[in-house]
Amino acid sequence: MTESSKRPLAVFDLDNTLADTAHRQRFLERRPRDWDAFFAAAPRDAPLAEGIALVRESARECEVVYLTGRPERCRRDTLDWLAAQGLPEGKVHMRGNADRRPARYTKLEILRRLARTREIRVLVDDDELVCEDARRAGFTVVRARWAAPSGELRAAQEREGRT
Q1: The Polynucleotide kinase PNKP phosphatase domain covers which part of the protein (predicted)?
Q2: Exposed (0-12), middle (13-18) or buried (19+): which is 11, by Cβ within 10 Å?
Q3: pLDDT digits over 94-105, tens only?
Q4: CB 64 within 8 A of CB 12
Q5: DSSP three-state, residue 1
Q6: pTM for the predicted model, two decimal places
Q7: SS3 for 124?
Q8: Contact 93, 70 (CB under 8 A)
Q9: Among candidate residues 44, 56, 57, the one with its CA nearest the CA of residue 15
Q10: Is 4 helix (H, G, I), strand (E, B) or coil?
C-alpha cells in the first residue's frame, strides 16, 4: 500500500465549486439548451479562489479526488484545466456520456464505492441536493456557496442529468 493510499480522500466537485461557470450559463438559457457549447466553453472557466484555496489546503492531509457531473467526453479539457490551475493531481470521476441521472445519484454512487476502501474526509460540492443526500448517507460535506447560483444549471442538473 502506498503512502498516498493510506491518506483520507478529499472529494471536490468542479463546476461552481472550483470552476466559475457564469460565462457559459447563457447556453443553458436558450431552448433547446446547447450542451455542446456549454461544455466546449469550460476550458475558459475562471478559477474560484475559495474552492482553489480549499483544495490546496485539503491536499496537505488528504489525497484529492475530483468528482464531476461532466460527461466523460470532457475529460481532456477537464484535466488540462486542472493542470493549468496548478491543482493537486488526483483521480477524476466523470459521468458516462449517456448517463442522464441527476448528479445526486451518480455522485452518491461513486462516493459509496470510494468509501468501501478509503476514508472520505470531506465532499465539497455546490449542488444542494448532492450535499443533502451525501450528508444523509453519513459523509462530511462542505457546501460551496462562493459561486453565483444558477437556476438554469440547477434545473438542468436535476431534470436532464447533464452536469
Answers
A1: 11-143
A2: buried
A3: 999 999 899 999
A4: yes
A5: coil
A6: 0.90
A7: strand
A8: no
A9: 44
A10: helix
What are the domain boundaries of the chain? 3-160
Q: How far apart are CA 27 and CA 153, in angstroms?
A: 10
CATH architecture of the domain with residue range 3-160 = 3-Layer(aba) Sandwich (3.40)
| pLDDT higher than 60, residue 56 | yes
Q: Which three cell numbers stand for residue 110?
A: 461513486
Please give the order of strands across the beta sheet that includes 141-143.
92-95, 63-71, 9-12, 120-125, 141-143
| Count of H-run helices and E-run strands, the chain | 8, 7
Average pLDDT over residues 55-72: 97
Nearest to 38 by CA among 83, 79, 69, 84: 69
Amino acid at 145: R
The alpha carbon torsion through 89, 101, 129, 7 (nearest 10 deg) reads: -30
Strands 46-47 and 19-20: antiparallel
At residue 14, φ and ψ (nearest 5 deg) are: -105, -65
